[in-house]
Write a structure and sequence with these properties.
The structure is a single chain. The protein has two domains: 298 residues, no CATH class; 118 residues, Conserved hypothetical protein from pyrococcus furiosus pfu- 392566-001, domain 2 (2-Layer Sandwich), CATH 3.30.1760. With 445 residues, the chain is of the alpha+beta class. The longest helix has 17 residues. A hairpin with a 4-residue loop joins strand 1 and strand 2. Strands 1, 2, 6, 7, 8, 9, 11, 12, 13, 14 and 15 form an eleven-stranded mixed β-sheet that branches. Helix 4 crosses helix 8. It is built from 13 helices and 24 strands.
């Protein structure tokens, strides 16, 4: 793999399903989607049964709490070895331009490798590659068990670059005819269309490197964000898959510690993770809110009383006439008070925070929810995309749903640079069906 240390990036060697395989059944959605909707994953399992599929190579997070997780992990390893032994992959080296169509819009991305030496997910990190949201440390060990020792990685990670002039991916899209077409097909379950093209022109490939290097120049970076000269550059910001990249980082650090030759290990494939690079300014890239669901909420002292106790005079609850009026008021809010929709089996309300703890409503709410769960006010929490899931789950007996507003995507880099990582699960890049599908793989050993 050709690597470029100054920008923490490499040109990947990509494994693709060999010609003749049914890509519609091969490609499945990111494992961290539909975590409260087991029916979705049951349909995926039934649809892919008996076919070569990435479903056999991943661990859908809807199953993370199952008793016999070791059995599923062994099954994943078995299928990885079987697919490699049977020659189900063919290898291509080069950047891969990804075109993902959902509805009438097409989001463009670029498959690259990023250097885990240049990534730090700690709050307040000043590394070249940074987390944009808080990392839940207890979510890393289960993922380490899944990835550690696996011969393959199948990435659902999407990383953002702040490129308003579209200098990195734009020239590749405008020269589409110069690339090698790798795949072009409809995704399962009504999730849109996916096409991929390998960059084979050395000049276009070199143009990508030069454009990324320019974005990483220290002086230009400082001017762009109004920072003092010499401020550490944030080149790549996490979009989706934060915990997957944190898992890869944890395994890489563990590998270095155990290495007999610290210098030789630096060329290991484990030093890198394959990701899809996406321009923050891509017109098809939308920031959607991630809503919250509480399960088995206790009636004593109850959710509303706990909100009143936590926020005091800064809390107000207003009834809403229905789902649409509630969502409209939350989405249209400007300034203070901060507003969040509350969905209960009994109806809809607007929660107002006139003395918020954080700049964003999601931060104010999450701060309360963390304390509420520690006090065992509810059995569990989940994070869902889209209005329909938060309504349907929130209206179930014993549950509660919180409907949140979206943040402005153009504020992301500046906010992370100035304030550090956002509260966890602040935003989602599109709704669940728009998420990245597993198609490409990469050898780790």
């Amino acid at each position: 793999m050709r690597t470029f240390d100054s920008i923490g990036m490499g040109i990947p060697s990509v494994l693709l399903p060999r010609p003749g395989l049914d890509l519609n059944r091969w490609a499945v959605i990111a494992c961290d989607q539909f975590t409260s909707e087991p029916d979705y994953w049951l349909k995926v399992q039934e649809y892919t049964q008996g076919a070569p599929t990435s479903f056999n190579l991943i661990y859908p997070e809807v199953y993370l709490g199952e008793k016999d997780s070791d059995s599923r992990i062994r099954r994943i390893r078995t299928f990885m070895k079987q697919y490699l032994d049977e020659g189900l992959f063919e290898e291509r080296t080069g950047f891969v331009v990804v075109e993902r169509q959902v509805g009438r819009q097409t989001r463009r991305g670029l498959m690259v490798c990023v250097d885990l030496e240049r990534y730090n997910y700690s709050r307040g990190s000043r590394s070249l590659i940074r987390a944009t949201e808080g990392t839940i440390l207890e979510r890393i060990p289960p993922r380490v068990r899944i990835r550690e020792g696996a011969p393959l990685e199948l990435p659902h990670i999407m990383i953002l670059v702040d490129d308003p002039d579209d200098t990195v991916i734009g020239p590749l899209s405008s020269n589409r005819a110069a690339h090698e077409k790798l795949y072009d097909f409809e995704l399962m379950m009504g999730s849109g269309h996916l096409a991929g093209f390998r960059v084979i022109d050395p000049k276009l490939e070199d143009g990508v490197i030069r454009s990324v290097e320019k974005l990483a120049e220290s002086e230009g970076f400082a001017r762009k964000y109004g920072l003092p000269p010499g401020s550490p550059v944030l080149l790549f910001a996490m979009g989706d898959g934060n915990h997957s990249l944190a898992t890869a980082k944890a395994i890489w650090e563990k590998t270095k510690e155990a290495a007999a030759d610290p210098a030789a290990i630096l060329t290991s494939p484990l030093r890198y993770a394959m990701v899809e690079l996406v321009n923050l300014y891509d017109p098809a890239l939308r920031f959607e809110p991630i809503h919250r669901i509480l399960f088995d909420v206790l009636s004593d002292p109850g959710l509303v009383k706990s909100l009143e106790r936590h926020f005091g005079a800064g809390f107000r609850l207003q009834p809403a006439a229905g789902l649409e009026p509630m969502t409209r008021e939350v989405e249209d809010q400007k300034g203070f008070p901060q507003k969040v929709g509350l969905i209960l089996p009994t109806g809809f309300s607007i929660v107002e925070f006139s003395k918020p703890d954080f700049v964003l409503p999601v931060g104010t709410l999450q701060n309360f929810l963390d304390a509420f769960l520690v006090d065992r006010g509810a059995r569990a929490i989940d994070y869902v995309h889209g209005t329909e899931p938060v309504e349907s789950l929130g209206r179930k007996p014993g549950n509660a749903g919180f409907f949140l507003p979206a943040m402005n995507k153009t504020d992301l880099f500046k906010t992370v640079i100035q304030d550090g990582a956002l509260p966890r699960k602040t935003f989602s890049m599109g709704e669940a069906k728009e998420k990245r599908f597993y198609l490409e793989a990469r050898k780790l050993f």
